[in-house]
Amino acid sequence: MSHERQRLGPVVFPSPTRPADPKEQKLLGIYAQRDTGLFMLRVKTPGGRITTDPLRRLARLAAAFTPDYPLHLTTRQDIELHGLPPDAVTRALEGIAEAGLTTLGACGDTPRNITLCPAGGMCGGHGDLLPLVLAVKTYLEGLPNIDALPRKFKISFSGCREACAQPWINDLGFVMMALDQGRPVFDVIGAGSLGFKPGTGVLLARGVGVADVFACLLAAIRIFQRLGDREHRMRARLRHVRERLGNEVFLQLFESELAKARQEAAGAGMAANIGPLSGPAGVMEVARLSLVKGDLTPAQAQRLADLCDTHSAWPSLDNHQGVRIFGPAAEPLREALEKDALLAGFLSPLSIVTCPGVTWCAKGIADTRSMAERLREVLQRSRVGRAVTVCISGCPNGCAQSGVAAIGLSGFTRTVEGVRTECFRVLARGGMGKSPVLAREVAAAPSPEVPGIVARLLENWDSFISI
Fold this sequence. Notes:
By secondary structure, the protein is an alpha+beta fold. It has eleven helices and 20 strands. The chain folds into three domains: 6-98, Sulfite Reductase Hemoprotein, domain 2, CATH 3.90.480; 123-273, Sulfite Reductase Hemoprotein, domain 1 (2-Layer Sandwich), CATH 3.30.413; 351-459, Sulfite Reductase Hemoprotein, domain 1 (2-Layer Sandwich), CATH 3.30.413.10. The termini are far apart.
């Protein structure tokens, strides 16, 4: 089946072949897995919104090409297919295109999937921000050399002051502070990131309207293109530009670039297409499915789509590997979920976020998935565990957001009695990216000792007694 092909720099989607160049593979959302000869495909869902038909189609692709692997949800509201044989990659890309989705720009040195707080601005009487997210995506794709930034560039939109889209750990985070005649007004936070040594961002601007959203994007990306470190990838994010210049100089530079960008961004006409924002009337959050390891089997995904269709509801992926379900009435669908053998187990208040770790990731050091199972038992027994999000990263890169977690684990190895041993650093009391507060290290220990450390930490949670 032919498709209207999308282009990002040197690559097109869906690609008729798998590129040999690793950079081009990443721009297509393709990563070589830890498993020799197998690949991962990362599928973008802007703002985490996915309707039931694409969800079913992804489930069928997974069942056909990777039957031994689940669909995997990420902290950037993407969906990953793991375990793809080489000869299935291009066929899977075609299937993803047929589903109306894309992998283009899901990886690589380009803007990644734009994240949106789980309710997308629909809660509390606010307008739905998804139209703005989609307009920003289109605008970015048209910028020159957007496929060849110094490194990745992450953007988020939060629908209220709660800042649930974690602006403090994004390159640009827009936090809606008010609605002015149906049009959002944002504070802008930027130049934050995680990684080996995480650092939260700074306030860049207050009271930004829709037109200035596009100008802020253009200003930040131009600074990044010009000053980002292209020689040392560990120091290549926008945050490192800010740290190198100092906050005062960086903020002055941003204001100067913003002034220049306003006229050019206005000329693109994107803001004119964004009218007053409004969400569906009478919509409520029905349930949250907590996927402890971020996994959803093809059968579970298809069942979820079927139930949503039956009850006129829809799923939305959140940024903690959960699925929020929205609809016009809570009780009938909630009851159906509670009775469903495939999905009832996900109706848990526990929140555990994990990166793939050594299971799939070539950079993984520690087994995050086994640790998630052990910590699920700890949280189930704890008085406060159900209200605490635990983030487990399989290496110091911190992809599960452990550096800002309420409780975070970061995998590493050390030699214990002459044996190379899997260990975790235990971090606590971070602001989850909703505030500038980083988690602080409270312990470092071999894996078998970590569940006990977390249990004692939870026992002393209110007073945070040193352990």
